[in-house]
Structure formats: structure tokens, C-alpha cells
Amino acid sequence: MNKIIVVGVTGSGKSTVSKKLSQKLGLPYIQLDFLFWKPDWEQSQDEEFFEKIQKALDQKSGWVIDGNYGRTNHLTWKEADTVVWIDLPFWLVFYQSLSRTLMRALTMKELWEGTGNRESFFRMFSKDSILLWLFKTYSSTNARYEARMSDPAYQHLRFYRLRSRREVNRFLNQV
To answer: Do residues 37 and 115 make contact, with C-beta atoms less than 8 angstroms apart?
Structure first.
């Protein structure tokens, strides 16, 4: 395991697992959200986003990436050797997302350095709510990764599908 992508629905724990893997393996951590989001919640255009990703990948011989940006697969999945899919039950992911979002709204901590982007109670109940995004994408995201596990285009990858916190912890302890 030298080039690892950590995927899963929003709030599944991708960033937490990625940071722990990065520390345990001594590999740089690349967060796609950090590369994607600009100040005032402005989204990077694809060309700019792809350039940032390629630059981050080129500077490192190994890495741990977290994020579900399907349009970046041509850059990341072809280079990766491992995919860690955090596939937790909906109720648990919803609980984790709600807890995280509430804490972020209370603390107003900047999400990605230099962007000024913060969670707020207003945003939590808006059309841009991360909780609403979870409801909209949970099934389709899981179906996409289920299909990729048997897709010949991804046979070069070693998949780890972690379906509980216990499995996540066991995986991290065995790495």
C-alpha cells in the first residue's frame, strides 16, 4: 500500500481514516475537498481542479487521498494501488454527519485553510446542506463503488470494504 484512495459517502469518516493511514504509513495526505473548494464556497472548475490534483500527485511517490470526486478518477484511480471503501450503515453515517455538522456550526472553525468556508446553522438547513447531500447520494455512491469492485478497469486495485467501526479499527490496527 503506497498510493491509497479512501472513499465512502459524506460523513463516513474518510478524512479521519485517511489522516490515520497517512501517519501510520508515513505517506502524504491529500484531501480533494481542500483542492476543490475556494473562498466563499466557490467550486474549482475542472481544469483548475485537475491541475491541482496532478501537481499534488507529481510531488509525491506515495500518498493517501480522500474524496469521492468521480470526475478525477482518470488522475487518481489509475495511479492508485489500494482503495479503502468505508461502507457504514446509513443510520451511523447520518449520526456522524449530524454530530460533525452541529459541532462545526457551533465552533465556526474554518474547514479548509485559506478559504474562510465554515459550516453554519443556516447552511445546515439550506439546499446546500451536507445532510441533504447525504440523503441524495447515499445509495448511488454505494452502488458506484459496488460496481467498481468488479469492474475490469480497476482490477489493478486492492479493495478493502469496511462495513463497521470495528472493521475500520481492525484495518487501521493491522496496517
So the answer is: yes
pLDDT on residue 107: 95
Domains, the chain, ordered by start? 3-88+139-170 (3.40.50.300)
For 148, the grid coordinates are 467498481
The amino acid that residue 99 corresponds to is S
Q: Tell me whether residue 6 is exposed, middle or buried, using C-beta atoms within 10 angstroms of its C-beta: 0 to 12, 13 to 18, 19 or more.
A: buried
Average pLDDT over residues 85-102: 96
Which grid cell is 20? 490515520
Residue 138 identity: Y
Torsion of CA 96, 98, 103, 108, to 10 degrees: 120
Nearest Cα residue to 164 out of 38, 12, 18:
12
Largest CA distance in the chain: 45
Are β-strands 3-8 and 63-66 bridged in parallel, bridged antiparallel, or unpaired?
parallel
Confidence of residue 125 (pLDDT cuts 50, 70, 90): confident
